[in-house]
């Protein structure tokens, strides 16, 4: 059966003829250089043109990203190499690199080097750290140099393809080729290296319509691929998938199996001749350039083919090679959450199909590999072939000796002890779109899901839901049915189903209604999931890992890239995850914590209290947050070991003595401030005063002291405010105290002299002369003589101030006392009279 590789188009953009494409390694960007002289950057996620650069009035035949410098390097028919900053669009440099058209460029993966190939039949090496100096010229081709590529396994060597039909391999330090591969009858257009370490292969294509694979160690052609009926402009090994991609002037892009060399697929996007392509080293995206535009496609799945058994043994596929590791060897008690585990990797063997999925049997003894429409069951330890067959999908039952395969949309087979049980399932009268294993066999139809009994093949229950996946708990009594944007949790009642069958009931097409009990629906997307006891752990499309207990979900961690859940190992109390490159990470989650939370949600606080002593200290904060979310704040305060959390809970509960003790330990101004607010609302003035002092809340202290007529306190605040330079608060204190002379001096000190004069006139006439004198000197120092001369001192010109009478100013607090006694109010009131 042929290789099954999903192909998803991410971008199709029409434009002028595309002569070169490149993909950015980290951003979702496609770079295209056009025959019209433009270079454009597309965001293939949003379909938008991000940048456009008018490079030349001649065709730009080569353009490459240099991500470590934020550059684009271009080569055009005007013989110029130009470099642009793709963020600012600033031209970094431009220089004549060849006396003829520039056909191709190659950027060294680590060194500051760029290769250029030209119609002048030479290849040149440029060093940008030496001012783009040409440090080597390579001669040997007898016609145009069409393509260049560095060896990914040895970046000191590179290969070139020329219209002389030759493929040449070079070393950076030598101007002459190491060797030449001859075999094409016409001009060669493209050359690429095989990326894996197991084959020393090159691939080339030419105007003879052929693709050739070469062994560059033995220097012989090992395979010739025929199929295109016009010039083949590119042929390359995919860096991550076991395929070859080729494109031709016949308008097609062909996908070949790089192991069997069989043609697997042919793509035609109706954009006329195919000219160029680019792949991502760490991704599955492929860019294609045509006469009438560019296309970006995604090949295969992002999710790695990896599986972990209950003991922590991990097996995964790298191409067709199988590798393994064991987390026992890389995890200790001090493992940090989210830290990559340093695990020893062991080669286990190889696989005869391209693995799309790997799956351990429930007991961990077997591993099934699915791919290319086939399945192969291997022993997990020795990697020996145990059984094989045709399958679009494969699932295990709870019993590792029982499994099912979906051979087609109408045929699902069940096996026991590696032998088929024919006729077990009734003939399907619907199209089976997928199958799921576990306690029951699930078969997905269009908009519904049927569950069958593994033993008798009868329908247990039909559920009308558009499912994407199904996860069973280890006990087989809980199930998560995953849909596009939500998932359902149901409880399976095997006893109710058995009683119904024993009583002679006919389940029919709908099954037994009481077999499943609805528990909850959660609006969240599930990417991968697993059960730990009664707790469902899952990763979602927002790059988070959450867990569900009862009907509540809690976040364990966030990621900055997609992660895939491998499973939960109770021995370690840890969740294990992998990224797309099968780097392994772990996160702590105590099974006791889950059991405790489950007991609390059931309302069984007595059982929960018996579990509490066995909860690790580093998990108590999580438990306390859970209890707080359930409104059990008293219990949360008893459980928590986080001093900040304890303080917050004590404040919320009004336990001011506990909160005060913690605040003394932490001695944090925000903590004292929040405690002071609660103390005030609780009429605990002694504690409130202490908190305001500890928090250095001078405005709060001023309000507090003036409210209870504490002159000594206000004086203390005034002194503190002056010392700390908080002049507004200091002035307010002095004004409240009636200390007008000090208030006036403070205004003068802070250069608020006009305000000082107004204050003196209203409340301290004896200070007016001093203030006027200071005011005049200040104006004279600012060369404002006319304004200074317009100021009049009441002592010198009493005729100008007939209403002004000398009187002693009184402190405001005393004035208020006199108002209560019915005495005169203030100097201001006297002046009004």
UniProtKB/TrEMBL annotation:
Keyword Secreted: no
Gene3D superfamilies with a match to the protein in the record: 1.25.40.470, YVTN repeat-like/Quinoprotein amine dehydrogenase
Domain COPA/B second beta-propeller: 319-579
GO molecular function: structural molecule activity
A Pfam family it matches: B-prop_COPA_B_2nd
Record GO biological process: endoplasmic reticulum to Golgi vesicle-mediated transport; intra-Golgi vesicle-mediated transport; intracellular protein transport; retrograde vesicle-mediated transport, Golgi to endoplasmic reticulum
Membrane topology classification: Peripheral membrane protein
Localization per Swiss-Prot or TrEMBL: Cytoplasmic vesicle, COPI-coated vesicle membrane; Golgi apparatus membrane
Cellular compartments per GO CC: COPI vesicle coat; Golgi membrane
Ranges: WD repeats: 53-94, 95-127, 138-180, 181-224, 225-266
Acidic residues bias: start-end ranges: 811-833
Region (Disordered): 787-833
Superkingdom field: Eukaryota
Span of domain COPA/B TPR: 596-776
InterPro entries per record: Beta-prop_COPA/B_2nd (IPR006692), Coatomer_complex_subunit (IPR050844), COPB2 (IPR016453), TPR_COPA_B (IPR056176), WD40/YVTN_repeat-like_dom_sf (IPR015943), WD40_PAC1 (IPR020472), WD40_repeat_dom_sf (IPR036322), WD40_rpt (IPR001680)
Record keywords: Cytoplasm, Cytoplasmic vesicle, ER-Golgi transport, Golgi apparatus, Membrane, Protein transport, Repeat, Transport, WD repeat
Family: Belongs to the WD repeat COPB2 family.
Function: The coatomer is a cytosolic protein complex that binds to dilysine motifs and reversibly associates with Golgi non-clathrin-coated vesicles, which further mediate biosynthetic protein transport from the ER, via the Golgi up to the trans Golgi network. Coatomer complex is required for budding from Golgi membranes, and is essential for the retrograde Golgi-to-ER transport of dilysine-tagged proteins.
Known partners and oligomeric status: Oligomeric complex that consists of at least the alpha, beta, beta', gamma, delta, epsilon and zeta subunits.
Descriptive protein name: Coatomer subunit beta'
């Amino acid at each position: 059966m042929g290789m099954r590789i999903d192909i998803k188009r991410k971008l199709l953009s029409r434009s002028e003829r595309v002569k070169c494409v490149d993909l950015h390694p980290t951003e979702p960007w496609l770079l295209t250089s056009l025959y019209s002289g433009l270079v454009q950057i597309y965001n293939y996620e949003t379909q938008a043109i991000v940048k456009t650069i008018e490079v030349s009035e001649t065709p730009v035949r080569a353009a490459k990203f240099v991500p470590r410098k934020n550059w684009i390097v271009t080569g055009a028919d005007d013989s110029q190499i130009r470099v642009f900053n793709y963020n600012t669009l600033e031209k970094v440099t431009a220089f004549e690199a060849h006396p003829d058209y520039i056909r191709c460029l190659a950027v060294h993966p680590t060194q500051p080097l760029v290769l250029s190939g030209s119609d002048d039949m030479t290849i040149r090496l440029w060093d940008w750290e030496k001012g783009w100096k040409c440090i080597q010229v390579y001669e040997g081709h007898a016609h145009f140099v069409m393509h260049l590529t560095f060896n990914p396994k040895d970046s000191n060597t590179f290969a070139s393809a020329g219209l002389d039909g030759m493929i040449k391999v070079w070393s950076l330090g030598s101007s002459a080729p190491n060797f030449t591969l001859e075999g094409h009858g016409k001009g060669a257009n493209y050359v690429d290296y095989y990326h894996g370490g197991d084959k020393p292969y090159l691939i080339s294509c030419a105007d003879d319509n052929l693709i050739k694979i070469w062994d560059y160690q033995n220097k012989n052609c090992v395979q010739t691929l025929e199929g295109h009926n016009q010039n083949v402009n590119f042929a390359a090994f995919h860096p991550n998938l076991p395929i070859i991609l080729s494109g031709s002037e016949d308008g097609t892009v062909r996908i070949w199996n790089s192991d069997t060399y069989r043609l697997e697929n042919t793509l035609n996007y109706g954009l006329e001749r195919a000219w160029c392509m680019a792949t991502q080293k760490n991704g599955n995206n492929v860019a294609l350039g045509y006469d009438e535009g560019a296309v970006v496609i995604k090949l295969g799945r992002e999710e790695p083919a990896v599986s972990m058994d209950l003991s922590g043994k991990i097996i995964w596929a790298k191409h067709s090679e199988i590798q393994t590791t064991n987390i026992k060897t890389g995890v200790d008690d001090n493992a940090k959450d989210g830290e990559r585990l340093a695990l020893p990797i062991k080669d286990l063997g190889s696989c005869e199909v391209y693995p799309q999925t790997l799956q351990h049997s429930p007991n961990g003894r077997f591993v099934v590999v699915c791919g290319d429409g086939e399945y192969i069951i291997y022993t997990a330890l020795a990697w020996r072939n145990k059984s094989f067959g045709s399958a679009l999908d494969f699932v295990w039952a709870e019993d590792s000796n029982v499994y099912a395969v979906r051979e087609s949309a109408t045929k699902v087979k069940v096996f026991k002890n590696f032998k088929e049980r024919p006729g077990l399932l009734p003939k399907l009268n619907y199209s089976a779109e997928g199958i799921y294993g576990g306690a029951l066999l699930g078969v997905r139809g269009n908009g519904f899901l049927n569950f069958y009994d593994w033993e008798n093949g009868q329908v247990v229950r039909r559920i009308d839901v558009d499912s994407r996946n199904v996860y069973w708990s280890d006990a087989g009594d809980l199930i998560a049915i995953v849909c596009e944007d939500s998932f359902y949790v149901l409880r399976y009642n095997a006893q109710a189903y058995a009683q119904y069958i024993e009583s002679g009931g006919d389940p029919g097409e709908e099954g037994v209604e009481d077999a499943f009990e609805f528990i909850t629906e959660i609006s969240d997307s599930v990417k991968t999931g697993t059960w730990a006891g009664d707790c469902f752990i899952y990763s979602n499309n927002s790059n988070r890992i959450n867990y569900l207990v009862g009907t509540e979900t809690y976040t364990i961690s966030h990621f900055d890239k997609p992660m895939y859940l491998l499973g939960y190992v109770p021995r370690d109390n840890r969740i294990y995850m992998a990224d797309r490159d099968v780097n392994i990470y772990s996160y702590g989650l105590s099974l006791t914590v889950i059991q405790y939370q489950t007991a609390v949600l059931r309302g069984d606080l007595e059982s929960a209290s018996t579990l509490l002593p066995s909860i690790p200290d580093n998990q108590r904060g999580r438990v306390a947050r859970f209890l707080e979310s359930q409104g059990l704040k008293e219990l949360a305060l008893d459980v928590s070991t986080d001093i900040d959390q304890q303080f917050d809970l004590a404040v919320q509960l009004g336990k001011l003595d506990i909160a005060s003790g913690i605040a003394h330990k932490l001695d944090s101004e925000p903590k004292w401030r929040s405690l002071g607010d609660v103390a005030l609302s609780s009429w605990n003035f002694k504690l409130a005063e202490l908190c305001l002092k500890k928090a250095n809340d001078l405005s709060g202290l001023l309000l507090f002291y003036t409210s209870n007529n504490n002159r000594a306190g206000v004086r203390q605040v005034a002194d503190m405010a002056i010392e700390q330079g908080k002049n507004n608060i200091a002035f307010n204190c002095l004004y409240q105290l009636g200390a007008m002379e000090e208030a006036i001096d403070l205004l003068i000190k802070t250069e608020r002299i006009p305000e000082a004069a107004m204050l003196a006139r209203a409340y301290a006439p004896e200070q007016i002369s001093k203030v006027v004198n200071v005011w005049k000197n200040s104006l004279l120092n600012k060369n404002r003589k006319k304004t200074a001369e317009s100021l009049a001192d009441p002592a010198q010109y009493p005729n100008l101030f007939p209403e002004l009478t000398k009187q002693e100013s009184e402190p405001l607090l005393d004035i208020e006392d006199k108002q209560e006694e019915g005495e005169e109010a203030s100097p201001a009131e006297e002046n009004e009279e």
